[in-house]
Amino acid sequence: MKTTYGKKYISMATVSRMATYLQCLTYLEHQHTSTVSSHELAALLGVTPEQVRQDFSTFGLVGKRGSGYDVVRLKTEIELIFGRGVDRWKCCIVGAGSLGTALVSSHMVQKWGFKYAAAFDTDPRKIGTHIGRIPVYAVEDLKDVIRREHIAIGVMTVPASSARKVADLLCEAGIRGILNFAPRVIKVPASIPVLSVDLSQEFLKLAFYIQSAEQRAREQQAQIEATSHGE
Amino acid sequence: MKTTYGKKYISMATVSRMATYLQCLTYLEHQHTSTVSSHELAALLGVTPEQVRQDFSTFGLVGKRGSGYDVVRLKTEIELIFGRGVDRWKCCIVGAGSLGTALVSSHMVQKWGFKYAAAFDTDPRKIGTHIGRIPVYAVEDLKDVIRREHIAIGVMTVPASSARKVADLLCEAGIRGILNFAPRVIKVPASIPVLSVDLSQEFLKLAFYIQSAEQRAREQQAQIEATSHGE
């Protein structure tokens, strides 16, 4: 996905890091930390301090020489970059299964200004019920509800087999962006951003890190043994 | 997290891309595509062809000049890099709530050689039941079950308040890696890789992409109008 900020091209990796800085700053604010240096942020994220400064300068964020960044101010500025405060990120869930329920029930996204307004399902036993305070509607009502409620983001937690149909429905309803948890590549007009989340990739990455860590441990052990034999 | 492959340092971004290549290759295999060029893979991922070739050469994967990469062979080679085929990625879920249930019920991870062997919870109504075929044990039995079943990966879907206690228990049990869905930073010995997944970050990123796309659309519209006025 090609993304811009003002006239600048921004890589997806940069956007990811900005979201992680925001998470770190929220943590630091809770800890009543007032200032943070690029070195401290770099250590928290596992990147270089130069990377932190470069990321911030891309978005026009500057610290004070010597004292670093003001935590609350920097957090507020990054929130604005992510559209916080505009109060327009109404979300809907399509697919009220266990993952859909988990997402709606989690209060994690609310602190960033996102709000679930509706859920949709095809199961007659679920239609008309609520998940927490969120009403579950029939998928047939998707377009009407999205337009009436001015829903911006469609979160797809449907099986792979219905992913494309649901994506088409969301686009016809005028959705502004899609978060896709269905294990299927979906095609929508280029003007509508889609972010696909594949949780199985996190398992793959972790498996890689485990192997790498265990390999390093074996090598260190071998080195220790070689050294002690050489004595 | 510092990661190595052989003697080489590997960035987390590279590991992420490798997992995405694997997903793409699986898709291409299903489509009965026999070969793929670095240009085609680059287009699917939204990166440059140079990036694809650099990533593959890091892991010693080479294509044929002119005909590109053999899909099935490349997929098998990347699977091996991720530890597929070693049949040792037994997983457990700690926290049998809606997210835990969603993860265990999803069959997405099984195709990569991961297998859920146990779930743990503190709720007496859940202990002794099953999620699909996976037994739900009491958290008190966590260490015994992990050791007995040789479970490699602990997936934490517990509330923030119990995250640190559960992480300690997993480490004491000899877990090899942790996938943390709890919204809390956890500290474990450096030898045990932890991958924290914060789904709210995906919402933030999507909000950024939406704003960026809508800003571009407005600019293009303004340009069209300016041009037509100038005629």
Give an overview of the whole structure:
Two copies of one chain form a homodimer. Chain A is of the alpha/beta class and 231 residues long. Chain A has two domains: 3-81, Arc Repressor Mutant, subunit A, CATH 1.10.10.10; 89-197, Rossmann fold (3-Layer(aba) Sandwich), CATH 3.40.50.720. Helices cover 47% and strands 18% of the residues of chain A. Chain A has helices spanning 12-30, 38-45, 49-58, 71-81, 98-105, 142-149, 160-172, 199-230; strands at residues 3-5, 8-10, 35-36, 69-70, 89-94, 114-121, 130-131, 134-138, 153-156, 177-180, 194-196. In chain A, the strands form three sheets. Chain A has a seven-stranded mixed β-sheet. In chain A, strand 9, helix 7 and strand 10 (177-180) form a beta-alpha-beta unit. In chain A, helix 1 packs antiparallel against helix 4 and helix 2 (38-45) crosses helix 3. Chain A is globular, with a radius of gyration of 22 Å. The model of chain A has no long low-confidence stretch (mean pLDDT 88).
